[in-house]
C-alpha cells in the first residue's frame, strides 16, 4: 500500500533538511579569507599543471558495464528468492538456465581479461 | 479531544526520524573518539589527551572537534563546480541516513493502547530498498571527486566508485540466501523468523561474504584504496574542509553503523537474543558495537590491498562464491523439501 | 493527498527533465536525469508498484546513470562544450516537441479506460505482496522473455568487451 | 482523485521533452540520456495502465524494458567510446558516415 511508504518520504524530508542545515551553517559561520594559494588545487606543494578534468582510463567504464549487467541479474534474483519455496525444482532449473547463459559471458569476459586491472 | 490517526502517524514517524538522525549523529561523534582510543591502544600510544584523558571530561573531545570543524573556513577551490561541490557532501550524508528508514530496532511496545513500532517503515521491499539506496551512495563520492578540480580527488572518487560497484554485486548476492530462507523482503519478517535460530547458522558463507563486501562498500581498511594516503592524499575528499569534510566523514561512519546493523538484522537475528532471550534493542546495539569494534581493530592491524588485487578478488572470487552459495542453498532447500 | 503527492513528484520530474535537456554541462544533465528517475520511482510507489520503483532506482539511477557519468568523465573535457545545435534546428525541434505533446495528449484524453477489472486490486496486491505477485508472473507466464533477457545480457557483455578492449 | 489521465499526460510531457532533447542537442551522451528519458516515460505509462487495468502484465513489461535499456546503454556507450577513440570527437554530425 502506498501509505506504508509515506514514512520513507518523511525520513527523506528529515535527512534532506539535516544536510541542508549542516551545509548552511558551514557556509555562514566560518571565516572567509580566500587567497589564490589556498584555492589552488592541492598537488603536494607543486604548482598544479593542466586541468584536473582529464580523460580517465577506459577500465572504469568496463567495470561499470559489468556492474550493470550483474546488477540486473541481482534484481531478478530477489523476487525469485522470496518465491523460491513455491517454485521448487522448477524455480531452481529456470534460474540455473538463466545464470548458465550469463556464466558463458562471465567466462568470456574473464578469458578476455576484463576482470584484470593492469 | 480526538486526534486524527493519520496526523498521529505522521507525527510519530517524524519524531522517530529526528531521533534516529540525532542518535546517529551522536554515534558518529563518539565513534571517532572510540576509534582514536582503540587505535592508540593497539599501537601502544596514549591517544587523544588534550581535552582530558580519563573521566567525564574526555567525553567532551567530540564536542571540541565539532566546534573546531564548524568554525573552519568553508572554501571552494578555484575552478571547482560550485553547485556539485556543495551538494556532494550533503548527498553523501543524506543517503547514508536514509537506509535507517527500514531497519527494525526493537519489537513493538504497547503503552496505554498505543502500539509503538521501533522502525520508521515496514515495507514489502525493504531489502531491495537498502540495495537501491546503497547504490546511490556512489554518486556523492564520484561527484565530490569530480567537482573539486583536483587530480587526486578525481582519481580517488573514480577508484572508490569502481570499487563500490564491484562489491555491490557480491553484496546483493550474499543476501539472496537469507531471503530464500525467510521468503520475504521485509526486514521485520526476516528478524521475526530468526526467533530460535539465527540465519547465520544456515548461511555461514553468505555471512562471511556479506561482511567482506560490507567492509569494501564502506571503503575501510583493508579496502581503503580510495584514500590511500601514500598515493592519493585523501582521495575524493582532498579539497574539502570545514563541515563539508565533516559530512563526508560522517557519511563514512554512519555507513559503518548501517552495514553492521544490516549484518546483525539479516544474519544475527537483529533484536532477537540468543535462544530467544529477552528480545530488544539492547541486543541489536550490542551486535552493532561488536561489528564496529572489529572495523576499528582491522584498521589498526591490517595492511591495504593493491588495487588490481582488490578488483580481481571482487570479480573472480567473491562473485562466483556468491552464485555458488545461492545455488547450494537452493539445492539443499529443494532436497529437504522446505 | 494522493493527488498532492502526484503533483509534487510530477512537477519535480518535469523540471528535472527540462533541466537535463537545457543544461550545458553533461554532468549536470546526468544529475538532473537522476532526479527524474527518483521522482518516477516515487510515482511508481504511489501506483502500487514498489518493486518496480526499487528496480528503477537500482538499475536506472544506481547503475545506468553511473555508467553515463563515467563515460562523461572518460570523454571530458571535450564533451563539456559540445557543439551547439544548428540555427534552424532549435525552433523546429521545439515545434516538433509541441506537436508531439499535443498529439499524445489528445490520444490519451480520447481513450476511454475501463476501470475495476481484473484480479489485482490494490487490496489483493497488499495481501500477496507486490514483489511476490510480479515475481510469480515473471517466473511462470513470462518465463520465455525472462530467459531471453539472459541472452540479451550475454550479447551485451560480449559486445562491450569487443568494442572497448580493442586497442 | 488520481486518474490514469494524469499519468498519461505526465508520460506524454516527459516523452516530448525527451524527443526535443534528442533533436536539439548535438552531444551524443545527452541525446542518449534523452532516449532513456523517453523509455522512462513509456515505463510510466505501462505502470499506470497496470494499475488502472488491475493487471500486472504492465509491471512485468517494465521489468523487461529495464533489462533491455541496460543492455542498450552498455552497447550504445561502448560504441560512443569506440567512436571517440577513433575520431577524437563525439559530435554526431561528424559520425554520420559509417566507415571506420
Can you tell me about this structure?
The complex is a heterotetramer of chains A (118), B (338), C (167) and D (100). Chain A is an all-alpha fold. Helix content of chain A is 69%, strand content 0%. Chain A has a domain at 56-118: Methane Monooxygenase Hydroxylase, Chain G, domain 1, CATH 1.20.58.1610. Chain A is built from 3 helices and no strands. Chain B has one domain (75-335). Chain B is mostly helical and 338 residues long. Chain C folds into 2 domains: 2-76 and 87-129, Four Helix Bundle (Hemerythrin (Met), subunit A) (Up-down Bundle), CATH 1.20.120; 130-167. Chain C contains 8 helices and no strands. Chain C has helices at 2-22, 26-46, 50-75, 78-81, 89-110, 122-128, 130-138, 143-165. Chain C is globular. Chain C starts with a helix and ends with a helix. Classes of the chains: A mainly alpha (118), B mainly alpha (338), C mainly alpha (167), D mainly alpha (100). Chains in contact: A-B, A-C, A-D, B-C, C-D.
Which descriptors would you attach to this protein?
heterotetramer, B: mainly alpha, 12 helices, 2% strand, globular, C: 167 residues, mainly alpha, Four Helix Bundle (Hemerythrin (Met), subunit A), 2 domains
Measured between the Cα atoms of the first and last residue of chain D, the distance is 56 Å
Helix content range of chain D: over 70%
CATH architecture of the largest domain in chain C: Up-down Bundle
Q: Main beta sheet of chain D: strand number and arrangement?
A: none
Radius of gyration of chain D: 17 Å
Give the CATH class of the largest domain in chain C. Answer: Mainly Alpha
Specify the oligomeric state: heterotetramer
- The average pLDDT score of chain C comes to 77
CATH fold call of the largest domain in chain C? Four Helix Bundle (Hemerythrin (Met), subunit A)
Task: Please count the beta strands of chain C (DSSP E, at least 2 residues each).
Answer: 0
**CATH architecture of chain D, please?**
Orthogonal Bundle
What pair of chains forms the biggest interface?
Answer: C-D, 86 and 71 residues
Instruction: Please indicate the percent range of residues of chain D in DSSP E strands (runs of 2 or more).
Output: under 5%
The share of residues in helices of chain C is over 70%
Main beta sheet strand tally, sense and closure of chain C? none
Number of domains of chain D: 1
Total of DSSP H or I helical runs spanning 4+ residues of chain C: 8
Structure in a nutshell:
The complex is a heterotetramer of chains A (118), B (338), C (167) and D (100). Chain B has 338 residues and is mostly helical. Chain B is built from 12 helices and 2 strands.
Protein topology:
The complex is a heterotetramer of chains A (118), B (338), C (167) and D (100).
Chain A: H1 6-29, H2 36-39, H3 58-111
Chain B: H1 5-42, H2 61-70, H3 82-98, E1 109-111, E2 114-116, H4 126-147, H5 151-182, H6 187-192, H7 199-202, H8 204-217, H9 229-232, H10 242-267, H11 281-301, H12 307-336
Antiparallel strand pairs in B: 1-2
Chain C: H1 2-22, H2 26-46, H3 50-75, H4 78-81, H5 89-110, H6 122-128, H7 130-138, H8 143-165
Helix pairs in contact in C: 1-2, 2-3
Amino acid at each position: 500500500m502506498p501509505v506504508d511508504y509515506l514514512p520513507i518520504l518523511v525520513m527523506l524530508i528529515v535527512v534532506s533538511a539535516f544536510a541542508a542545515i549542516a551545509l548552511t551553517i558551514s557556509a555562514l559561520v566560518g571565516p572567509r579569507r580566500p587567497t589564490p594559494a589556498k584555492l589552488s588545487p592541492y598537488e603536494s606543494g607543486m604548482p598544479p599543471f593542466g586541468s584536473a578534468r582529464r580523460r580517465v582510463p577506459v577500465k572504469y567504464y568496463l567495470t561499470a558495464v559489468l556492474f550493470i549487467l550483474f546488477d540486473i541479474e541481482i534484481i531478478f534474483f530477489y523476487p525469485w528468492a522470496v518465491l523460491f519455496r513455491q517454485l521448487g525444482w522448477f524455480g531452481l532449473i529456470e534460474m540455473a538456465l538463466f545464470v548458465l547463459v550469463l556464466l558463458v559471458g562471465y567466462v568470456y569476459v574473464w578469458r578476455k581479461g576484463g576482470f584484470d586491472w593492469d | 479531544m480526538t486526534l486524527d490517526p493519520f496526523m498521529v502517524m505522521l507525527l510519530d514517524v517524524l519524531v522517530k526520524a529526528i531521533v534516529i538522525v540525532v542518535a546517529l549523529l551522536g554515534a558518529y561523534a563518539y565513534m571517532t573518539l572510540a576509534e582514536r582510543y582503540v587505535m592508540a591502544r593497539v599501537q601502544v600510544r596514549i591517544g587523544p589527551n588534550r581535552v582530558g584523558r580519563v573521566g567525564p571530561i574526555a567525553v567532551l573531545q567530540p564536542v571540541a572537534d565539532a566546534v573546531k570543524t564548524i568554525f573552519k573556513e568553508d572554501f571552494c577551490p578555484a575552478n571547482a563546480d560550485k553547485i556539485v561541490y556543495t551538494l556532494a557532501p550533503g548527498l553523501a550524508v543524506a543517503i547514508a541516513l536514509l537506509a535507517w528508514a527500514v531497519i527494525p530496532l526493537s519489537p513493538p511496545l504497547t503503552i496505554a493502547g498505543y502500539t509503538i513500532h521501533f522502525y520508521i517503515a515496514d515495507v514489502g521491499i525493504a531489502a531491495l530498498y537498502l540495495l537501491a539506496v546503497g547504490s546511490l551512495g556512489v554518486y556523492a563520492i564520484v561527484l565530490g571527486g569530480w567537482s573539486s578540480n583536483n587530480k587526486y580527488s578525481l582519481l580517488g572518487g573514480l577508484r572508490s566508485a569502481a570499487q563500490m560497484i564491484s562489491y555491490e554485486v557480491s553484496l546483493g548476492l550474499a543476501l539472496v540466501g537469507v531471503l530464500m530462507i525467510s521468503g520475504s523482503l521485509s526486514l521485520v519478517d526476516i528478524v521475526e523468523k530468526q526467533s530460535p535460530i539465527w540465519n547465520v547458522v544456515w548461511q555461514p558463507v553468505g555471512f562471511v561474504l556479506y561482511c567482506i563486501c560490507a567492509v569494501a562498500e564502506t571503503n575501510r581498511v583493508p579496502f581503503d584504496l580510495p584514500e590511500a594516503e601514500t598515493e592519493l592524499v585523501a582521495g575524493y575528499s582532498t579539497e574539502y574542509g570545514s563541515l563539508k569534510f565533516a559530512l563526508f566523514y560522517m557519511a563514512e561512519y554512519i555507513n559503518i553503523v548501517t552495514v553492521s546493523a544490516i549484518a546483525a538484522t539479516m544474519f544475527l537475528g537483529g533484536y532477537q537474543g540468543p535462544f530467544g532471550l529477552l528480545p530488544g534493542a539492547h541486543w541489536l546495539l550490542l551486535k552493532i558495537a561488536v561489528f564496529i569494534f572489529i572495523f576499528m581493530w582491522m584498521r589498526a592491524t591490517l595492511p591495504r590491498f593493491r588495487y588490481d588485487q582488490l578488483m580481481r578478488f571482487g570479480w573472480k572470487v567473491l562473485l562466483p562464491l556468491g552464485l555458488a552459495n545461492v545455488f547450494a542453498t537452493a539445492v539443499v532447500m529443494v532436497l529437504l523439501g522446505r | 493527498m494522493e493527488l498532492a503527492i502526484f503533483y509534487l513528484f510530477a512537477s519535480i520530474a518535469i523540471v528535472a527533465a527540462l533541466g537535463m535537456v537545457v543544461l550545458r554541462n553533461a554532468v549536470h544533465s546526468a544529475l538532473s536525469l537522476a532526479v527524474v528517475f527518483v521522482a518516477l520511482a516515487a510515482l511508481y510507489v504511489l501506483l502500487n508498484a514498489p518493486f518496480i520503483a526499487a528496480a528503477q532506482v537500482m538499475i536506472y539511477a544506481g547503475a545506468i546513470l553511473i555508467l553515463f557519468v563515467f563515460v562523461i568523465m572518460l570523454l571530458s573535457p571535450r564533451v563539456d562544450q559540445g557543439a551547439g545545435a544548428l540555427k534552424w534546428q532549435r525552433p523546429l525541434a521545439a515545434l516538433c516537441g509541441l506537436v508531439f505533446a499535443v498529439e499524445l495528449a489528445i490520444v490519451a484524453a480520447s481513450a476511454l479506460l475501463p476501470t475495476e477489472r481484473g484480479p489485482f486490486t490494490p487490496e489483493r496486491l497488499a495481501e500477496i505482496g507486490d514483489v511476490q505477485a510480479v515475481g510469480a508472473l515473471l517466473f511462470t507466464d513470462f518465463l520465455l522473455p525472462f530467459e531471453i533477457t539472459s541472452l540479451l545480457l550475454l550479447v551485451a557483455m560480449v559486445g562491450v568487451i569487443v568494442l572497448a578492449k580493442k586497442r | 482523485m488520481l486518474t490514469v489521465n494524469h499519468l498519461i499526460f505526465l508520460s506524454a510531457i516527459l516523452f516530448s521533452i525527451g524527443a526535443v532533447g534528442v533533436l536539439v542537442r548535438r552531444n551524443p551522451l545527452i541525446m542518449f540520456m534523452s532516449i532513456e528519458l523517453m523509455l522512462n516515460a513509456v515505463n510510466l505509462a505501462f505502470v499506470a495502465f497496470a494499475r488502472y487495468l488491475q493487471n500486472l502484465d504492465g509491471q512485468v513489461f517494465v521489468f523487461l524494458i529495464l533489462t533491455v535499456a541496460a543492455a542498450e546503454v552498455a552497447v550504445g556507450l561502448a560504441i560512443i567510446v569506440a567512436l571517440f577513440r577513433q575520431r577524437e570527437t563525439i559530435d554526431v554530425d561528424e559520425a554520420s558516415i559509417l566507415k571506420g
